[in-house]
Amino acid sequence: xxxxxxxxxxxxxAVPGFAQNTQAPLARVEMLPGWRMADGHHMxxxxxxxxxxxxxxxxxxxxxxxxxxxxxSGSQNVAAVDLHWPxxxxxxxxxxxxxxxxxxxxxxxxxxxxxxxxxxxxTGAIEMGICHDVCMPFQAEVSAALPEAGEHDPRIAAALEDxxxxxxxxxxxxxxxxxxxISDGLRVTAALELPQVGLDEVTVFEPDDRAIWVSxxxxxxxGGRLTATADLVPPTAEPFELDTKTLRLTVIADGHAVDIQxxxxxx
Length: 267
Fold this sequence. Notes:
This protein is mainly β and about 270 residues long.
């Protein structure tokens, strides 16, 4: 992608949980405060609105995308943060496949508080990419005080409904992987006994280490068996040890997806 070195810096405004670009309002970010759940966790969400024609990326953006990152270290009364990514769009352009969202993204954020009886002060430093004819980094800061109770938000609820299906719910029978070394990394082939998700399936490989580059998967389906192969290249550009039980696989098609947590390695 060209013009990737351009920068778009978003400065936080005085309104809690809201940031916008003071030069060109290509994107706006706010924190939806959400509600405290029965287990003591808090469900909030990042709400990202993009100008017409602009898109941003899923957690695994594809070969040409900009991977997102969020730093929550400035927060208070936060023990853990889990993101619940809605099913992304599959975008094919110039021979490349990327995964993301056009126009708007509601990204549910589940917070485990250190003390569930106290208010949560959430602060996030966001780095992600936005694209139209060019792509550029996007930075924003959000902060919000999340109350002990809060209110149910239908926007967050809808995003939670739009999650990939768990593998057992989707009918996964088995997930086996073979691994072979290549000159600069590994080639991994996943054989999935899985009912067809849609007409034009895309399989995404996600290793635990986000520094590892992953190629677009080549795949074929024969009945209930989907076979997908991708190359994994670490920063050292050499073969490495891979625990396939930590390898995450997502099969996406027609607005639906299946989340597969790990595969059995076959020697």
